[in-house]
Amino acid sequence: MNKYRAPGMSMRKVTLFVWMIFINAFLVVFALPALNAALVMILIDRMLDAHFFTPASGGSALLWQNYFWLFGHPEVYILVLPAFGVISEVIPVFSKKVIYGYGFLAVSTVAIAFLSYGVWIHHMFATGLSFVILDVFAATSMLIAVPTGIKIFNWIATMWGGSIRFTTAMLFATAFLIQFTVGGLSGVTFAAVPIDWQLTDSYFVVAHIHYVLLGGTLFGMFAGTYYWFPKVTGRLLSEKIGRLHFWLMVIGFNGTFFGMHLLGALGMPRRAYTFISRPSFDHLQLISSLFAFLLAASILVFVWNVVVSLRKGAVAGDNPWGGWTLEWAASSPPMVENFDRVPPIRGRRPLWDLAHSAPGRRTTGTGEVET
Amino acid sequence: MNGRVKQGMILFVLSEANFFLLLVCAYIFYHQSGGQGPTAASALDVFKTSLFSVALFSSSFTVWRAGACSRESKRGPMRFWLLATILLGALFLIGQGTEYAHLIEENVTISRNLFGTTFFTLTGFHGLHVFIGLVLLTILLGLAVAGNEHEPRPTAMEGVSIYWHFVDAVWVVIFLVVYLWKYV
Questions:
Q1: Which of A87, A218, A365, B147 has minimal Cβ neighbours within 10 Å of its Cβ?
Q2: B34 in any annotated domain
Q3: Which of B1, B15, B120 to mutate to test the interface with A (most CBs of A within 10 A)?
Q4: B contact residues 81-110, partner A, Cβ 8 Å cutoff
Q5: B3 has a chain A CB within 8 A of its CB
Q6: In this complex, do A33 and B114 lie within 8 Å of one another by their Cβ atoms?
Q7: Is A222 exposed, middle or buried (0-12, 13-18, 19+ CB in 10 A)?
Q8: What is the ipTM of this complex?
Q9: Domain end call among A107, A130, A165
Q10: Which residues lie below 8 Å from residue A255, measured CB to CB, with a gap of 6+?
Q11: Domain termination residue (choose one: A121, A137, A165)
Q12: Count of domains in chain A?
């Protein structure tokens, strides 16, 4: 992003997907060394009888937790930022509207990146740390919900009043918005220390992580797959099977994990070696297990869709969705030397500008036409 | 080509800096954890270490000269400064080797106590980085000696040089924290 931008592509015109991946790269560069350090320390402990994490000889198991989560919390953002990027591409195209709050979306991601290094203790609220530390990290953890909330509102505002086409990609993007919000809300409740003490290591946490990781990241990835599959392979994924995939997945996913909120609140611990049978747990567990099969079936439907569409899918053409970012100017699938000619880049939607600019008219940075 | 090597190396070095920062934090965290056995104050020979530290510190100067000669296409001096850097780096590693041998003779090992654990982990990883730097520098020197068509580009020199300065800077921190702390 620093060195390979097309002529005219200033930092403020780069698509949000690229922005997200760019910021993600910084998270990777700075977060993974913490895991690296923690892993070599535990390796040295195990292999060379060292004492980093062995309390018996003065070491500290808490140090492991600190180092692991210093990596671990940025890591969850590493997992979700690419999905944020996909959503920021899919929603505008299928709403036929310019992304709302481009600058805010980019900058709030930078804010998330910085804050993500300052919230790791919220994974350790139950380890007996001092109240000052708990309060500080409760505050930062709540703070990080703000830029994330800004994003959600920007995406909703993009859809607001747009002429929305619910293709499979858009369906996944919409479900992402709703499910990620549920996951975000359960997440921000943990920032309140007493609630965390009550719910930590329970199924409530399991529900939370699956809502952000599956309901968020995985749905975002599927939105991206349906959106860019024609660009990658030259053939469209079947919309009909796609819809079946989507609805099975939404029902299977929510059926599996929504009940876990209740299970956790009722006191069901996570990481139990067996099902704990209590009258209040049994039904919810059974429901959860049954819906999990539906969720698995939806993935099979997706695989079926890929296989069928690769062989007999409709031929995509260069730009099946009316997208306006540069990749849709290349052939599908792109050839070696993918652009014989790069369209002039004067705005954030170069292909839109190209299609709508008559001679003598000039387009502004956001794609609106100026006369 | 312009600046890409440099950008990549700077990001790599920042990532590595984070890694060393955490190892240094672990060392400081356990610095006064009590326990029995040797400590930095009782086990380390600051005078000897400062001698081979000076070798490493001065190699930052020689590698800078090598880079400058490379940009000005002065081949002979460049080879000289590269060789000097390698020799100084090797001197540091030999110094560290004798230090380790002495400590192990005194039964100060990585499994003895927390000082041993944190000391050998931190300085060991630094030594490994010095060794990797020496390999890179030797490759550059080998290319320079091999002849004109293999002459390392100034950008390659710059990348290795950034890495070498970083290794040097890490040792400044380690030397302060591990060796000089007892004088505070």
A1: B147
A2: no
A3: B15
A4: 110
A5: yes
A6: no
A7: buried
A8: 0.84
A9: A165
A10: A287, A288, A290, A291, A294, A295
A11: A165
A12: 2
